[in-house]
Design a protein that fits this description.
Elements: H1 2-25, H2 30-45, H3 48-57, H4 63-86, H5 90-97, H6 99-118, H7 129-132, H8 136-168, H9 174-193, H10 205-242
Helix pairs in contact: 1-2, 1-10, 2-4, 2-10, 4-5, 4-6, 4-8, 5-6, 5-8, 6-8, 8-9, 9-10
């Protein structure tokens, strides 16, 4: 089930990224293409086989996991910036790009790097599963590392949540409200992922469900925004052709 969810999420991200490629080559909305590309790379690096291949090329010290964290940080920042501007959410934009947002990003990055350096990271393993299994100290550090890595994405998506709720209650087109609903669901999933350290081992699969569900919701939500804008641009042309 987990493998199916991983590869399905990767497939969706790849399809959406490739669909955006022609527009990006024409110089249209390259930021959206970058977001989808970063998300695709993040999912790729979360899957065992490609992760190990990349990490072995980097020295077999799980540097690929550190790269993954910062790819996620970059993707979630650009996503938050794009969505906040797209929904005219000035409050969210201030939280993302203002002093508080910068401080949260810097603090989360510093903690991620510091905890990574404290672990015995030898031996490539996706999700640092081999590091977790080494001893109690490394197991605890992996949990702290994961929590620090989830903090910034949760901050960005929670900053967007009020704007998504406002959009759901508005009279905007169905596609726009549907995109807001998906983005809100992604926000909830990312926020719940902060509870990963207290999820019992018997329900460990829920960590994967929350993480990949969040990515799917965010990617599909952004895709609906793109689709809604494309349809809105075509509508005046069709009306002009009928007059």
């Amino acid at each position: 089930m987990i493998a199916i969810l991983q590869w399905t999420t990767l497939a969706v991200c790849c399809v959406v990224t490739l669909a955006r490629l022609p527009c990006a080559l024409r110089g249209e909305n390259r930021s959206l293409f970058s977001i989808f590309g970063l998300m695709t790379l993040a999912i790729l690096l979360s899957i065992e086989a490609p992760y190990v291949a990349v990490d072995q090329a980097l020295g077999g010290m799980n540097i690929a996991n550190l790269v993954l964290r910062f790819v996620i940080f970059a993707a979630i920042f650009f996503l938050g910036f794009r969505v906040a501007r797209g929904f005219s959410a000035d409050d969210a934009l201030r939280l993302i790009t203002g002093p508080v947002g910068i401080a949260v990003a810097a603090a989360a990055s510093a903690v991620v790097v510091a905890v990574f350096l404290m672990m015995d990271t030898a031996g490539s393993s996706a999700g640092l599963s081999a590091v977790f299994a080494k001893d109690d100290r490394n197991a605890a550090l992996v949990e702290y590392y994961g929590a620090a890595g989830r903090l910034y994405p949760a901050y960005i998506t929670l900053a967007l949540l009020p704007a998504m709720v406002r959009t759901l209650r508005s009279g905007l087109p169905v596609l726009v409200r549907s995109s807001a609903a998906l983005l809100a669901l992604g926000t909830v999933a990312i926020s719940l992922s902060l509870l990963s350290p207290v999820i019992p081992p018997s329900l460990g699969f829920m960590r994967f469900v929350l993480n990949y569900s969040a990515v799917l919701c965010l990617v599909l939500g952004l895709s609906l925004i793109w689709l809604a804008k494309s349809l809105a641009k075509r509508a005046p042309k069709k009306q002009a052709g009928l007059t």
